[in-house]
Amino acid sequence: NEISIDSWDYFFVCIPIVVIGAPLGSIIGSFLYREVLAIFVYVTDTVQLIAALIIVKPWKISSILTITSIVFIILGGIIFSILTRIGLKIMSNIEENGGDINADPSLNRNKKKNDDKRVQMASHSELTQKDKDNGDNQNDECQGGGEGNDDTLDDLL
Fold this sequence. Notes:
- The chain is mainly alpha-helical.
- 77% of the residues lie in helices and 0% in strands.
- The protein has 6 helices and no strands.
- The longest helix has 34 residues, at 63-96.
- The chain is elongated, with a radius of gyration of 31 Å.
């Protein structure tokens, strides 16, 4: 149950790469945009996958290994596409809620309706005030909220 000599050799080869590469990668990564780093990861992962297929040559070993390799690659792409769409939907909901992660999206719709009412009532009261300043009281429909709405601005706030 001992660890083989080859495993220790591989471990010792990795030590300087990690000790130098991790801090250097962190420094370089702090100067790059997130999208640039993501593209770099996509490219290196794709190169790694192609290199692994060239080295292992699963089609020479077994047809089952070839089929499962293809199935896992396709399923992985599908799963990550679904996760990407879910993430984008979540992010758009967060943006609609003004950055509040825990906000209920249905409350946001009600808030938007109330905001629209506030804007309408504020514009009606501005129009009414202008009419009064001009001595013209013909704009009676704006007084009282317009379209049969008895809400006042204070009730909405």
